[in-house]
Amino acid sequence: MDEEFRAAGPARPGEQGQAVGALTVADVLALPVLAAGLPTVVTGESELDRPVRWVHITELTDPASFLKGGELVLTTGMPLPTDPSLVRRYVDELADVGASALVIELVRRFHRPPDALVRACRTRGLPLVSLAKDVNFVEITQVVHALILGNHAEAMRRTQQIHDAFTALTLRGAGPEDVMRAAAEMSGHTVVLENLAHQAVICEPAGRTVEDALTGWERRSRAVPPGDDTDVRGPEGWLVTPVEYRGERWGRVAMLPTLVPPAPGKPTRAARAFGPEDVTVLERTAMTLTIARLIHATTWERRAHRNLLQDIAEQRHRSPDEARVRAAALGLPTKDGRFLAVLVDTSAELETSLADALEPTFGPVLVGELSPGRVGVLLSPRPAQPWRPAVEQLSRTALDVDPSAVISVGSEVADLAHAARSFREAARVAEAVLPDSPGKPFHELSDIGLRQLLYTLREDVRVQDYVERQIGRLVEHDTRHHTDLLPTLRHYLDAAGNKTTAARRGDLSRQTLYQRLRAIERLLDCDLESGERRTELHVALMALGVLRLS
User: Fold this and answer.
1) What domains can you pick out in the chain, each with its CATH number?
2) What is the CA radius of gyration of the chain?
3) How far apart are CA 180 and CA 241, in angstroms?
4) What's 51's DSSP letter?
């Protein structure tokens, strides 16, 4: 007799938990239809939480060829061989295919489990259960089969709900905060979006506080190894999945275990394992976030100025002549003039204030919001009139309204057709302005040095990867061992390799400095006497500094 009742497929690779409500070996043994046989767990008591995915009745000597994993195998023991080596092979095949348990009825042939069978099951960790009374195997399969199918249908319904919810978020153009909030609500777990520099960009808590979730985040995140698939990783058991943007990985989403308060003298522990439903939520979160990054909503006010500025800045007009005509209609001189693009990054409403402040002294200007939080200004200084007074007045007006405003200037051009270049340059300047840059009412191209350039490229995965490859091991060593090798390296490089100066800046003895430099060379597998190698490390340190400004 060989009969199979299949209810679901085998577990997916990397699955660390089971769906809420999935049947386990212990659940099946507790069912009245099987409890009537007076079941006794002979081996594998610690493995009774294994999921049962279907039931298999067999009287074959090689049942494993009909199994796919997760089966509860029922047998009367009639075909069981007497040769211990054949018994071991029988059990090995069941264990290798992933059977959840072996149930043997001790009525017809055996009155106690054969010793060879017990030894083989104990060796392979396969739960062996004996039944002292005769039971109806077909009735067992029918009951378990119905329960599994019911759970499977509920899981499918829930999975469809998850897919529908994230599809709705995508269709309405939800922002990343909305996506992460939905993930936390659906899973009941805290979810965190981080970039490749291990910076937590968004945290949506569930079952724990934000402080608890993010305390020591970089150190904890570095302990979680990267991977290409959704899986549970790291010492805390995070469920993580990568997030990509235009085919390149730029970060990952982590789902943290829900914690329960520790008992006196006991460590905090996870409330429950992750299941297939959590995997579905996390993977759909990553997919929806990737789509959300492709959506750039733009709002418009003062439509005429804004549309013209956008067309000029992005060269969307049909021809330069069309741009000149439209600009002239708005009062901006277009012949024999000079043009200068200025960008004001601000959280305040400045369009009208800027236009009112500039026009009485410097004539008509184009002012409009190019994107949320960024106001564009196109100045056209009169012949022989320097542009700096106009930009200085613009800066004073903006900073009076919003002290945190950032004003960026492109280069002067002689034709409206070239104004797009000035806007692009101003945008590059704005991207390079470091937070809280002191003493500068406005910023221009000459202000962009190496540090500012690296700050501009801080979200580029290649820069983040470069930092990790160059000094990641040093950062991890300092974090793990509470050392100060990274500051020592910074003092040494800032001193251009002068050890005396580096020791003084680090308040170290020369002997201690030499010891630390040797440790750095050993950790980074490099020669600090190499000028090229010092340059590479100096750039990496500078990049790490600007990454931590974000």
Assistant:
1) 2-151 (3.40.1390.20), 172-292 (3.30.450.40), 303-448 (3.30.70.100), 461-547 (no CATH)
2) 34
3) 13
4) B
pLDDT digits (tens, 9 = 90+) for 111-168: 888 989 999 999 998 999 998 888 888 888 888 777 776 655 556 677 787 878 888 8
Strands 71-75 and 54-58: parallel
Task: Produce one character per residue of 129-160: b if its CB has 16 or more CB atoms within 10 Å, e if not.
Answer: bbbeeebebeebbebbeebbeebbeebeebbe
Q: State yes or no: pLDDT of 524 exceeds 70.
A: yes
- CA-nearest of 340, 341, 550, 536 to 433 is 550
User: How many other C-beta atoms can be found within 10 angstroms of the C-beta atom of residue 497?
Assistant: 15
Q: Fill in the DSSP letter of residue 24.
A: B
Q: In angstroms, rounded to a whole number, what is the distance separating the alpha carbons of residues 503 and 505?
A: 6
**Residue 297 · residue 371 · CB < 8 Å:** no
Residue 224 has pLDDT above 90, yes or no: yes
**Residue 237 to residues 232, 233, 254, 272, 273, Cα–Cα distance (Å):** 6, 5, 10, 11, 9
Q: Are 39 and 130 in contact (CB under 8 A)?
A: yes
Single out the residue of 451, 375, 371 nearest to residue 408, CA to CA: 375
Environment class of 16 (CB within 10 Å of its CB; exposed 0-12, middle 13-18, buried 19+) = middle
Assign residue 123 a region (left: φ > 0; alpha: ψ between -120 and 50; beta: otherwise): alpha
| Residue type present at position 148 | I
Query: Given a cut of 80, is residue 545 above it in pLDDT?
Result: yes
Dist CA 534 CA 513 (whole Å): 16
Q: What is the pLDDT of residues 437-459, one digit of tens each?
A: 766 888 888 888 888 888 888 88
Distances (CA, A) of 84 to 77, 187, 205: 14, 48, 55
Give phi and psi for 247, each to the nearest 5. Answer: 80, -5
Over residues 7-38, the pLDDT tens digits come to: 333 333 333 334 434 778 888 888 888 888 89
* Strands 238-245, 366-371: pairing kind: unpaired
Render 382-440 in DSSP notation, one character per residue. PTT--SHHHHHHHHHHHHHH-TT-EEEE---BSSGGGHHHHHHHHHHHHHHPPTT-TT-
Residue pair 151/28 in contact by the 8 Å Cβ criterion: no
Q: What is the pLDDT of residues 89-115, one digit of tens each?
A: 999 989 998 888 999 988 878 888 898
What size, in residues, is the chain? Answer: 550
Is the CB of residue 238 less than 8 Å from the CB of residue 257?
yes
**CB distance 249 to 242 below 8 Å:** yes
Contacts of 101 (CB under 8 A, 6+ apart): 25, 44, 47, 48, 50, 52, 72, 73, 126, 127, 128, 129
Residues of the chain with pLDDT > 90, as a percent, come to 18
